[in-house]
Amino acid sequence: MDFLTTIAGPGTLEGIGLHSGAPVTMTLRPAAPGTGIVFVRTDLGDAEVPAVIGNLARTSYATTLESDGVAVATVEHVLSAVVGMGIDDLRVELDAGEVPILDGSAAPVVRLLEQVGLDRSEVPRQVMRIRQP
Fold first, then answer.
1. What secondary structure letter does DSSP report for 104?
2. What is the pTM of this model?
């Protein structure tokens, strides 16, 4: 059986937004089982933007999520690193509206996740299986 996973502790990366050019600090924090992946805009009073398909706002040049008028742009590299590492629950705190581009890949995020480590809960992961097209 597979269990919901978060990270063992916080980790921070700093850089600039690819499209905005604005400096941004991104801090990854553990989240409780069942939370999912949630982007948190600390510059907007900790407004939350859950990473769910219903919050997909734009995909032209970058993936943007939006909830209640609060947007987070260029989330694709963070999300690919998180999913690739098997993380289900995570807070991604940003002090700007765009994830830092770093080196243009998911590798810096993967390295950070490896440094902070993973924490598996005792809550079983629920998996959706597609049985036919």
1. S
2. 0.95
The CATH class of the 3-121 domain is alpha beta
Domain boundaries, the chain: 3-121
> Token digits for 17?
């937004």
Residue 7 reports pLDDT greater than 90: yes
Q: DSSP characters for 62-102?
A: S-EEEETTEEEE--HHHHHHHHHTT---EEEEESSSB-B-T
Distance separating alpha carbons of residues 109 and 75, to the nearest angstrom:
12
Confidence of residue 128 (pLDDT cuts 50, 70, 90): confident
| Tokens read off for 34 | 């069942």
| Amino acid sitting at position 39 | F
Measured CA to CA, the distance from residue 80 to residue 24 in angstroms comes to 19
Pairing of β 90-94 and β 37-41: parallel
> Which of 62, 36, 41 has the alpha carbon at shortest distance from 51?
36
